Amino acid sequence: MNGNLAKPAEAVIARCRKLASFSEDAGGTHRTFLSPPMHDCHREVSSWMKARGMNVSVDAVGNLRGFYSAAASGAPRLLIGSHLDTVPNAGAFDGILGVVLAVGLVELLEGMRLPFGIEVVGFSEEEGVRFGVPFIGSRALVDRVDEELLGRKDEHGISVRKAIQDFGLNPSEISKAALNDDVLGYIEFHIEQGPVLESLGWPLGVVEAIVGQNRLEFTFSGQSNHAGTTPMKLRHDALAAAAEWIVAVETLARRTAGIVATVGFVEAKPGAMNVIAGEARATLDIRHASDGARTEALDELIRLAESIAARRGVTVKWRTLLAQRAVAMDPFLTEQIDHAVQKAGCEPHRMASGAGHDAMVLAEKIPAAMIFLRTPGGISHDPAESVHLDDVAKALECGHHLLTQLAASQEFLGRTCRA
Ligand SMILES: [Zn+2]
User: Fold this and answer.
1) Model confidence over 83-109: pLDDT tens digits?
2) How far is the CA of 357 from the centre of ligand 1 (A)?
3) Distance from the CA of 94 to the center of ligand 1, in angstroms?
């Protein structure tokens, strides 16, 4: 590795910007699962991979996979990657950066072979935009693409199965995309998409866990009535009950370390200016890296909803829309990343990811770990999304140290895989 990483870092950023131009919308970045511009994206990334002697293929769910062989044949492999799909009106770095950095790390090896192969994976689908289901790409690697998923339709009535065929792939070969037992682990670089690293002044973060989350819908039911003739003390105002609870959600989350809780949607019925609301619906999204802490906070918020409702003479019901456990990153890989971040001259700040990532899915079957890059302004899913050149250089340096460490680690090379 050449000591100065400014040039390779500049190349990484330029490549991300180039990929951002392959879009369903002129002038913006919008590249959903198996959309026509994904072909252009694959062609471009493949050309970089092939220039380094990597063996490139596209699996049956459209994941781009480039293999850089090990020093010896039959050696195990390490996966490094992220996703190539985007949200509408996207920035250039969410997901894409992780794939481009992975190619950059192979380039930094300058032809040197390691005791393990490196498979760079550009996942076809992570954002869940086209079919309303996220992680289709990584699910295929853990053998979790089922008939129900294949039958799902996009807004034009095209099923996942048909989309795969239209892209020139064969849905009957999806099982071949699944990981074999020669995989040592998965490493993902990703922008933080939040303000934490920036507020701390650190370029890189070491992800310890991906938070678990619950999504619920609460319905407060009272009595709608005339806003002019019903005295205040005789009211059963469902919206006022919901409002008191919403503030209680915020208060509890603010005084409980690590909890983030959000009421992002409210609806009052009948919804007229001069009518007391008889019903109010409010959603709750609550997340924490610890399942215990999350469950405890959620139980408390349910108790609060019940007591607020009872005091106001209204009732409350709730239903769960999503319950997802926290996913711990692999402790060995995470510790190795700590060392690599330190060697790159940075503080190894441990943090939880508040958003889901491909690493969360792969962690079901193989050791997985993540490194975050500082996100200027915390802005993501927006054309203003950016990265600092120095941070990208630090990420390359950290990644290179990590590969060197892992190549020298008997503990790593001797790991047996659960896939
Ligand atoms: Zn992403």
Assistant:
1) 999 999 999 999 999 999 999 999 999
2) 6
3) 5
